Amino acid sequence: MTSVFTRSCSISRRSLSGLLAGIVGLVLLVSDPGAALAKPLKVGTSGGPVADIMNFAAERARQQGIDVQVVEFSDWVTPNEALANGEIDTNLFQHLPFLNAAIKGRGYKLAPIAPTYVMPVGLFSNKVTSFDQVPDRAVVAIANDPVNGARGLQLLQKAGLITLKPGAGDAATVLDIVSNAKNLRFRELEAAQLPRALDDVVLGQVSISYLLLSGGNPEKALIADGFGDAHYALQFVVREDRKDDPQIAKFIAIYRSPEVKDYIAKKYGKFFVPVW
Prior knowledge:
By secondary structure, this protein is α/β, with parallel strands linked by helices. It contains 9 helices and 13 strands.
């Protein structure tokens, strides 16, 4: 009887010892993040060339021990929602005017931390080859989001087709048009739809990224903006509480490396202009 009791106590002591060891190990694991497997760095981006460049940089990062997961989005609203909700760690798809408008409109606690390159926007046409050929009451397609719609209107002003209210800038809408000699009519569409709209309108504002994705030729732009203008540089954006995150900083350093800059220059030439 004593032998059974002793053996039982021994088993209990071993069980208790194992339990305590497990608890101690868990505490050490929590207190030492390096002891746990690092989570993938989730980076949100838009499709086409932007995603292509991101995937190239992500592969370079993986070779240096950073597990980067590229998450592609098909619109320009969800990437900021996903970032604000903690579903991704950073995103790269927007310039400062767009980000500032998103923060103002939705109250995001987001911050830009590094510019990358400028992706121009141009006015394209499948019907005319110069602005003096644009007929009266022609339909013009522009982006339906406020900031990029303003960018399209500013291009039309630069082309001499309209005049905007002084100071309208990045907040310009069709209501700010004070002169429209050709009585242009405007169709506001999602940016991704604009390349496909060129067969249905006389002029269309198209991002070079979406144009390339649709197989278009950027050399056919009647006018374009953004070349080297850091105002329109796409920015890495994070939540405000992660502005100093070392893993994000390390990946951005890899992204903004000579190797990635060389890749951009060789594949996209003058149409994507690094600003680092």
